[in-house]
Each structure stands twice: as structure tokens, then as C-alpha cells.
Design goal:
4 helices; 0% strand; mainly alpha; single chain
Length: 102
């Protein structure tokens, strides 16, 4: 195997991993925003907690591990729907800051 083939193979792997990395960064941002929403607003916390408990009760699962995987997928989709707009989260944080300092 030549050096050119090895470099080409490594470059192909890097090119394939970049989209996966970008998706991961986006999902981490959604989860961070979701955490901020839940911690900042008590009504959001109460609503999301009720929703999570309802989902746990309604989810058909073979065992605890199966339930865990299904619920974490549900939580990830909730995080996406509730917090995919970073500007709204930043505005909410700024509003909270201004209210507490006034």
C-alpha cells in the first residue's frame, strides 16, 4: 500500500466524519438550550416533567433498558422542538438578567 493510498483513505474518513460531527454539535446545542429553558422557567419545567412522566407511563417497553432508549429518543425530539432557536433562548436569558438586576 502506498503512502498516497493511505493519505487518500484517511482523507475520505475525515470527509465522512465531518457531517456526523456537525450533527453532534447541533444536538448538543439543542440539549443545552433545553436545559436552560427548563431551569429558567418553572412553567416549562412543570410542563416538560408532566410530559416526560406521561411518556414513561404510555411507552410500551420490554424492559428498563428498552424504556430508557425510547424515552431518551423522546427527550431528544422534545429538545429539538422546544429549543432549536438559540436566539430565542438568548433573548429569554437576557430578559431574566434585566429583570433580576432592575
Amino acid at each position: 500500500m502506498t503512502t498516497e493510498m493511505m493519505v487518500g483513505g484517511l482523507a475520505a474518513v475525515v470527509v465522512m466524519l465531518i457531517p456526523i460531527y456537525n450533527v453532534s454539535l447541533r444536538e448538543i446545542r439543542w440539549l443545552k438550550n433545553y436545559i436552560v429553558l427548563i431551569l429558567l422557567f418553572e412553567d416549562v419545567y412543570a410542563s416538560e416533567r408532566r410530559s416526560l412522566l406521561d411518556s414513561v407511563r404510555a411507552t410500551e417497553a420490554r424492559n428498563a433498558n428498552d424504556l430508557y432508549h425510547k424515552i431518551t429518543q423522546t427527550a431528544a425530539s422534545l429538545a429539538f422542538r422546544r429549543s432549536n432557536n438559540t436566539v430565542d433562548i438568548a433573548t429569554a436569558l437576557w430578559t431574566a438578567k434585566v429583570k433580576t438586576s432592575a
